[in-house]
What does this fold into?
Amino acid sequence: MAESAGKYDYIIVGAGTAGCVLANRLTQDPNTSVLLIEAGAKDDYFWVHIPIGFHHMINNPRTDWRYRTEADAGLNGRSVLYPSGKILGGSSSINAMIYQRGQAQDYDYWAELTGDASWRWDQVLPLFKKTEDYVEGADALHGVGGDWRVEKQKFGWKILDAFRDAAAQNGIPKINDFNLGNGEEGSAYFDINQKNGLRWNTAKAFLRTIIRRGNLEIMTGSQVQRLIIQKTEQGNVCTGVEFIGGGKEWTADVSRETILAAGAFGSPQILQRSGIGPATLLQQHGISVLQDVPGVGENLQDHLPLRMRFKIANAKSLNTASKSWLAMGLEYMVKKNGLVSTVPSPLGAMARSDPSQATPNLGYQIQPWSQESVERPLDSFAAFTASVSNLKPTARGHVRIAAADVTAPPVITTNYLSTEQDVNIAATAIQLTRKIVASSALQQYAPQEINADEDLQRLAGDVGAAGANPVGTCKMGAVSDALAVVDSELRVKGIAGLRVVDASIMPVIVAGDTGATTILIAEKAAKLIRAAKR
It folds into this structure.
């Protein structure tokens, strides 16, 4: 028999990027009680906090769900690892630490799709600024004093400087900031989420400062099996959750709202196991249909990175860093910079696949290292990776439970490169990358493409990897949108007292890394939730 974990004003499922923000904001009222449930462990693993430790967290069961995709025709029949954070801070604890907001047009489009002007860029910008603590100070587009630290990088690479010069030779200008909202075209070193040389995840930023409030309980190592839904005369109401943790089964009751913040893979699974989702899928797994919501798990989008590797000479790369680990460690301890402080993708670039694009639709992350796949060690020779993605993909995949059992991993179908438009843009991206690498600014390093192939569609399928920005599987939309799962205030269709607040609610993926946008979503949702309480 399940034990009772008590009754709370709010239950938040998932202490990842969004969940930590929600916990912070909702407990600002001392009279409000919050239960935060996280499947992963505490973020006290050494490599979480050391920036160069990113290779130790991907495909590590201590920090990563280690999801795998279904075999994908667009990836030439390959099934690939799909990293997703399973730890306090979620994917903010294992990601590339990039701070990027996307383009103003992204949010204006959300407002158009939902019919809610509060999602427009000019309306969400103040929330970005409120959350931010920008190292260079406040201005019209940046904020200081917020919880989310944004810094400049302290370590550079000659090979990346040369790539930036080569990009400029091909009409991609050098710029200083990707976060001006104008669809910035150009190359720059990314702003990053670090503080004093350490990764700044959402657990540090939003949770550690509030532990002593006394109205927040955090249960790690606990996985929600299903939501408790009661039928009333007014309709279906979410009244709590059932979960497992510490070898026990638990129930927790809620008086106000339950908020799913389990991410683009976790949130749709919980809804589906709870009888909320496509009726045919639920019936297939013997789950009673409480609410037929066809869009739950559909609309999966991501930026497919085409990881083009180039062997080089006459330059350092992380693959063959010449300094000893002891010297690197001492430098880091004293200066909080150097090689140990490097991020996975220091340099970025935004470009257009063709002049007809209103804003840049290609995003580069240039990495001073290389590996055949995220499951393999770094290459033994000096190299860099030019990872280029279509920022506005038209392909759509889905996430579906494989069984009613909470321990069964989801079925993730990405459908990468399944549309003619996406294939054409991938081919153009490869051609542009080759043109940049062939430019004079890089020739002193004698770059050699490792996976050279003139069949560009086949090459894209070979070098494509699961991205790090899955979104859309519980998308928000207007009442008339049959595939919308939540409304513009993130309330689940047909279920009172239940919201989804994470990257899964994005109707269309933003043109950039999605971490900052997920924090924005949580900040906006917390404001809506507090207003609903009154």
The chain has two domains: 1-152+192-303+397-416+469-534, 154-189+305-392+418-463. The mean pLDDT is 95. The domain at 154-189+305-392+418-463 is CATH 3.30.410.40 (Cholesterol Oxidase; domain 2).
